[in-house]
Fold this sequence. Notes:
By secondary structure, the protein is mainly β. The chain has one helix spanning about 5-20, and strands at about 30-35, 35-40, 45-55, 60, 70-75, 80, 90-95, 100-105, 105-115, 125-135, 135, 145-155, 165.
Amino acid sequence: MIDASLIVLAVIWSQFAERIEIPDWETSVRFELVASQEPVRPGDSLELGLVADIKPGYHLYGPEEREPSRTKVVVVTEELESAAPIYPPVIRRDLEGLGAYDLYEGRIAIRVPVKVTSEREAGELEAAVEVSYQVCTDFACSAPTTDVISVSLPRAKAGASVKKLHPDIFKAK
């Protein structure tokens, strides 16, 4: 027969072991920037999508949370005029002893409507966004971070045909 005190000790130890786990902040979230079409032409309106793959056990904070924890995306390419980002729905979770927060877990995509303001028709357009975020577990957080994520988009002349990309991210309107 198992002693009840051993069961209690095992439960306490497992909770303690979770709290001292060393998070891997470097690989906990992977960002990729994609576009809704290619090539891009002068005057085109399209969307950029910042895709975040967040490993299980980690989360990012929603855009309505306080700075510097919240997730914020800004287009930093001068050849693109941007509108407000379209953030996906958040998950409301109660973090033990800290309160309820709006979080992102799993795979998300933040869409940003943009317009090509450059008249260039050759070469590539380097589209870039700056993402500010803080990645956390339920017990610890990384330092607030800002990264620039970019994608190279081929250019074409006005009137050239374009191919729609990533229909899973950029739903038909």
